[in-house]
């Protein structure tokens, strides 16, 4: 559950929540790190749960020696009140036996906090794309019906590509099988999306097809893609490390 | 993942494939799953006096809680602190998982996780954990133990063994640098750690991390001293690496700063018969 690290609990009413899915290449998590460090967001609390594998480390966003020794936990919430933005960072894998419980925890926290919309940054195995998906942009999106109501125009203007439904058994010409949503390597992305549809939550998924490796450029691509929509920064972030 | 030289490496991905929830679990599966979950539960067994006190709603008064995770950390406490006759055994925790097996000569259950309390200063508690606590049991162990302790002005010190193979650094670690100590502490910890802080990108995992997480969110002063060693198993040099911590622990408890070689020898086995892979 959410435990505030300040004296009083912060208010997230009408904030946008950005969160990662622990997925292939850890792209969502890297993109969230980019957002937190670029916008210099401050930590406002922790999600303390038995669903994540425990880990602890010193401040990964330390800019000087003074704030280097701040302890960080597997799931933390950062906020930038002026942007009405909250970010959840997840640093550890979800225990396999607890994925459903973790999704329920997230859905109920999102509901009780009153976020106006949630954006899940995720990724999917590039090697499992079908012929159609091999062409064009590797970025995809999904929105729940609740979010589509308010954002249909914005999404249309951006010209984004919706995540395709794929046949359950490719190659079989059995007409009975409906194409369905499949996000291989996406962790809890699909489950969280379907749960949000059921609960009528305004939620969007932004994902990228990628493979394990140096996923820093993928993180930049995903973060800039998000920025095109939410306009968190005036200019998109550039990947200076790509010059090496 | 493909490399520049055309070879294909199978890379371990941390992305977990989500279980297909559409598959209905039949009753038998659900029962098996429930029984397995029950078997993996952490149970605390306190002495009658402590049980009575907890049952009547009084938590254990505790000013210092010292936790040793791993064989060398546990042996260090046994040799330097628990060797004096001022300690009562007040409880143990039973933890069953896939790695539980009877250690030669003693039942794993009995000695794997024991709680001691100082006779003269009963607010000082020590716990030695030498068994493996699985990932899904770490949070439970921590919550159950800390639920029994009062939190006000509590100071937690954790000594934790780990392998130097897990230590990541850009500089080459010479052969003579291990074993060495690194520390991590919560925001509420106001004292000075006895060693360098754990550098990026290293992290702490396991029971030490679970305790740190709990203490951080509940604003309890806690410090973890992680000992990176290149020796698997009990080793006197690794044990001695924890010595600087004695200066902090010695403030609240009487300790033996220079134990005899016999005392050390008792805790250090030379070669384990089962592990004759490297003689």
TrEMBL record, chain A:
Subcellular location: Nucleus
Any one of the GO CC terms: nucleus
The family this protein is said to belong to: Belongs to the PSMG2 family.
UniProt KW keywords: Chaperone, Nucleus
Lineage per the UniProt record: Eukaryota, Metazoa, Chordata, Craniata, Vertebrata
Official protein name in the record: Proteasome assembly chaperone 2
Taxonomy, superkingdom: Eukaryota
Main localisation: nucleus
InterPro entries: Proteasome_assmbl_chaperone_2 (IPR019151), Proteasome_assmbl_chp_2_euk (IPR016562), PSMG2_sf (IPR038389)
Function of the molecule: Chaperone protein which promotes assembly of the 20S proteasome as part of a heterodimer with PSMG1.
Subunit structure, interactors included: Forms a heterodimer with PSMG1.
Automatic annotation (TrEMBL), chain B:
GO cellular component, one term: endoplasmic reticulum
InterPro entries: Proteasome_assmbl_chp_1
UniProt keywords, alphabetically: Chaperone
Biological processes per GO annotation: proteasome core complex assembly
Source superkingdom: Eukaryota
Recorded GO MF terms: proteasome binding
PANTHER family, A to Z: PROTEASOME ASSEMBLY CHAPERONE 1 (PTHR15069:SF1)
Family: Belongs to the PSMG1 family.
Full protein name: Proteasome assembly chaperone 1
Organism in which the protein naturally occurs: Neolamprologus brichardi
